[in-house]
Known about the structure:
Elements: E1 8-12, H1 24-33, E2 37-41, H2 47-57, E3 62-65, E4 73-75, E5 81-84, H3 87-94, E6 98-101, E7 104-106, E8 112-114, H4 117-127, E9 132-136, E10 153-154, H5 156-164, H6 170-184, E11 189-193, H7 203-206, E12 213-216
Parallel strand pairs: 1-2, 1-9, 2-6, 3-6, 9-11, 10-12
Antiparallel strand pairs: 4-5, 7-8, 11-12
Helix pairs in contact: 4-6, 5-6
Amino acid sequence: xxxxxxxxxxxxxxxxxxxxxxxxxxxxxxxxEHAVHPVVVADEPGAAxxxxxxxxxxxSAGVGLSGADAGLILxxxxxxxxxxxxxxxxxxxxxxxxxxxxxxxLSLAAEGIRLAADDVAxxxxxxxxxxxxxxxHAGGGVADPRTAEVIADLTPAEALALADSGSLDAxxxxxxxxxxxxxxxxxxxxxxxxxxxxxxxxxxxxxxSHLGTRVTGSIRIARA
Length: 224
């Protein structure tokens, strides 16, 4: 964990990963104890405060936010993200709090606009210069259209090609596209994984292996 101390990890969650007996909230507490700064992006508006409540029951200090808070997320009329203002997030980090963000932006007309959670996660990860951004998806990663096996590693170009190919379901294509864009924006690596796996959020920090599909900026040598 020492390699991640002081780093930011952005996690876009999905409802299925947080149902029943999940390790997710204890994983977040573990990150805080080891000086990692997690940021959670909820799947829908209104969910962040509920997630913060569950986290706080375990003794952590979660704060549920909307994009309107302190002008955190500014959005256009067509639900595109125009700017992220990270000042509030840095203030929360400095005081030991964990931000949980609803996928909602503030328009120029001072109205709330629902945004795609994947886009919020990749934009927040980019502006915070996150070390990792994780996208939870029940499929566990991007499957090879020919073999149906989960692909371990992709470059941003490969992830975008698969997202645009029509071979992935809409939610997985969205995650793959956001993962690629976040890496191109400077995030060290993005990963698409099944959040229902025990301790999925911290496996990569504790072991040499990784779950699901990792997208990085390195060039992968194609096999013959």
